[in-house]
């Protein structure tokens, strides 16, 4: 492919299809899982969400980068997304809050981006054929070399170990009312902000922290975070739930939701192309209300496996019927598949943090 037309980067799929475009951000080559996201805003939060570790994300909204990035909006300090594919990239942001361009953030963190791609065609390919391996590289990389890279590169299964903190850290708030231990499997900072806003001091611990260490902290509740990859690969947290359930209120979001299900003996499975975006309608089975939710996950909990495991479904996705929430009231355990802390939105589900804090306060009363 000639460089004269501006194409200097390409993405190559396992079926041999190639999409050319212009590079921005960091360089390649890199092999990742290819997924798409339907959000219209929030690309900074997407790029900095640890749940996208090892994934190249196709943005279906056609214009990305137009409001830059702001220091206060990151979901993690060091983004680990695999790469970004957009239709049109804007490198001249119009936003009084912006401090860096999106390309500068990607370049600083060695994350490749590509623009000029037919993202509509690519998203339809993912929808029809499912998420799969993809290579992002320079446009002049020979076809045989690209195919060999795709074939020989194994997608990692240690994403949680890579993004979890290496030692505990604290996020405190004034006049706190509850102490929460948050197990970091790739936690988004807005989860911590949401807990702080409700009077919770948060101690963030690595994913492989032993149960006894958490018990020695005497928390009012335990929170299981979102994160990347297959929940079955995160055995330390699954075992942690088995040891702590019934002792403290436990709340999980996204990967945390799936690991709670596995800890009780329910099953999970991989979706064809996952849920990613801010427009998923979810029905609360307790109230009958419909919440518009933000989602980011490849795996789901098998609905038929809940009852034998002693769990009940609390929320359901109205698009495909997948389980979006579960609970074990006896053990004071509940979780949701979607993101109630989502920024920049929607914000229909913030009540779940209130539910968790109320559960912790009630536990203090009866202690």
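^ structure tokens above, recovered residues below v
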């Amino acid at each position: 492919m000639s460089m004269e037309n501006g194409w200097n980067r390409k993405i190559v799929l396992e079926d041999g299809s190639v999409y050319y475009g212009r590079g921005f951000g960091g360089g390649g080559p890199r092999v990742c899982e290819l997924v798409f996201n339907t959000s219209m805003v929030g690309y900074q939060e997407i790029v900095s969400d640890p749940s996208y570790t090892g994934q190249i994300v196709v943005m279906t909204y056609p214009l990305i980068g137009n409001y830059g990035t702001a220091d206060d909006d990151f979901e993690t300090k060091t983004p680990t997304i695999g790469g970004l594919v957009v239709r049109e990239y804007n490198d001249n942001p119009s936003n009084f809050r912006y401090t860096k361009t999106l390309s500068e953030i990607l370049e600083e963190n060695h994350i490749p981006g590509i623009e000029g791609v037919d993202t509509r065609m690519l998203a339809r390919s993912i929808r029809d054929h499912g998420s799969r391996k993809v290579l992002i590289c320079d446009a002049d990389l020979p076809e045989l070399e690209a195919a060999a890279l795709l074939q020989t590169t194994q997608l990692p299964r240690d994403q949680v170990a890579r993004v979890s903190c290496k030692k505990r850290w604290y996020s405190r708030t004034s006049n706190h009312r509850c102490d929460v231990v948050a197990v970091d499997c790739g936690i988004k900072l807005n989860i911590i902000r949401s807990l702080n806003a409700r009077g919770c001091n948060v101690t963030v611990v690595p994913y492989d922290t032993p149960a006894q260490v958490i018990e020695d902290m005497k928390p009012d509740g335990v929170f299981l975070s979102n994160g990347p990859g297959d929940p079955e690969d995160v055995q330390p947290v699954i075992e942690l739930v088995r040891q702590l359930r019934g002792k403290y209120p436990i709340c999980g979001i996204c990967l945390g939701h799936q690991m709670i299900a596995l800890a009780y003996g329910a099953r999970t499975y991989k979706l064809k192309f996952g849920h990613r975006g801010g427009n998923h309608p979810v029905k609360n089975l307790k109230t009958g209300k419909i919440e518009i939710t933000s989602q980011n996950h490849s795996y789901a909990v098998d609905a038929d496996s809940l009852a034998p495991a002693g769990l009940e479904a609390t929320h359901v996705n109205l698009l495909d019927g997948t389980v979006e929430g579960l609970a074990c009231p006896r053990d004071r355990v509940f979780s949701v598949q979607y993101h109630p802390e989502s920024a920049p939105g929607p914000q229909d589900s913030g009540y779940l943090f209130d539910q968790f804090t109320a559960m912790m306060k009630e536990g203090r009363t009866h202690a």
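DSSP finds ten helices and 19 strands in the chain.
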